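Chapter review: from sequence to fold.
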Amino acid sequence: MRPHDSQVPGHVPALDGLRGIAIAIVFLGHAVALQLTPAGVEGGLREVLRFGWSGVDLFFVLSGFLITGILLDSKGQPRWWPNFFMRRALRIFPLYYGALFLIFIVLPRLVRWHDPDYALLQANQAWYWGYAVNVLNALTNGHGTPLNTAHFWSLAIEEQYYLLWPLVVWLCRPRTLLRVALIASVIGVAFRLWLVANGRPEMAYGLTPGRLDGLLLGGALAVLAREAGGLAQWRPLALRVVTIALIAVAGTAALRGGFEYHDPVVAAAGYPVLALLYGGLLVLALSGSPTDVLSRTLRSPALRTAGKYSYGLYVIHYPLVGALERIGLYERVTSWLGGAHLAAVLLVAGLSAAATLALAWMSYHFYEKPFLDLKRFFETRRATPASSLAREPLESTGADHMAR
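The token string follows.
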């Protein structure tokens, strides 16, 4: 089947759509699932939407794919290493450190904080500034990141990945990268098994060695995309992998009463299944016909818009949901609707989604964009024609990483 062509050089509509799916399921997990009661209809919906935590695994696959592709295509060019880091910094740092500036510098001067949670947050702020929230989360079992700031953990993982993986790419030939990815994945599984055996499955969720599956699979797919035939030759296998992975997730959820990241079975073996599921989905997205259902879905305006602003949506949405909880909005709306809790949760989620999108749009266009425009001073030329990579260029203008 002939892969579809890109319409905008340097930009991949299908990847925006995948990012849109990822942020959508993450948002539903936080803004809806966590607000529902565990009984009745709400309980059933809650269990389904709690799978939203896996959205970060889709982002890991996308990050591994995009970043490895950028490194492979620019490797050997003058200043390829500093250019890569400067472009990453201009994409990531402004919003991340801008959010920290608001939380730790501006808000204390505007509001008198007497909440113990805020005191704890202030005491632990060094972990945030140093991109080590994932370690803080693991050491405190999630209790050291109050006020809905725990979601910065995966940004920390990706930053640690950005620091180490370019060195691996520089040292290795593309085919060697495949072997390195396989060996590192096996080490990651062994690390998780050790944590599970010692009764700490939740630590495997946030520590970088335990979350390499998606990042490394994405990197491996970037290598395969640059071989003769591109990703199109892997499409039949990807379809089977996605089908089997979905069956495995559903079967595990049925047997374990849910598919939770802190479940020892999921921590030990579920993460590779998610990586394969989302890796297969990525292959299908980049190798399909423009008329197939997946391609049309991923190119829908709603998903592409969510994907374009996904970085801001993620950074903003979780603290905003927490703020709405703290002011009791869910309870108030439930009262206004005569006790219809599910309707109230959905209504507040819709309002918070609109507010988050508005804030992310303003952040992107009025704050992040000037920094992004500076990337022109750190350009890299592609060594590989886009036409050989499943006919899709691999660098996107949207955020290529997200969080839980």
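Two observations follow directly from the output. Residues 341-373 form the longest helix (33 residues). The radius of gyration is 21 Å.
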